[in-house]
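Handoff note, outgoing to incoming analyst
You'll be picking up this chain. Sequence as last confirmed:
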Amino acid sequence: MKILITSLQNLLLIRKNQLKILIRLLLFRLGFNPKESISIVLTNNEVISRINNEYFGKKSPTDVISFSLPDKFDPDKISGEIVISIEEVISNSRKYHSGSAEELMRYIIHGLLHLKGLNDSTSSQRVKMKKEEDLLLNFLKDKEGKLFKKIFK
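Most recent structure output, in case you need it:
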């Protein structure tokens, strides 16, 4: 499983290797194909607002956007990209008293769940998505709680 992490922001310095360990655990837990590759892009509100406007017609920032990028040569291989606003990570971690590492992992989990086909368009879908996010977040905390503290430099 190839995991590419690109940081286009300077608000939080990321320890990519520690983050990759957590992401790899999630990918395994969610049953992603080992041939798949995932790209995580950490950016700011300006960039994610442009992406949100271009692809969804919304002229505002959002916390996370995911794109499924199917491989036309291997239909069983689904690669994806998850774009996350670190400004939203910081803002929402303060709002929900969750900590930046937990908030970042929640957004990564959210994006991965979208790549696995979960949707959050309706209130019942949002409830199901939140429940899955919480389960996976707790799984990571139980399995690798110390790594949460080591995601940021």
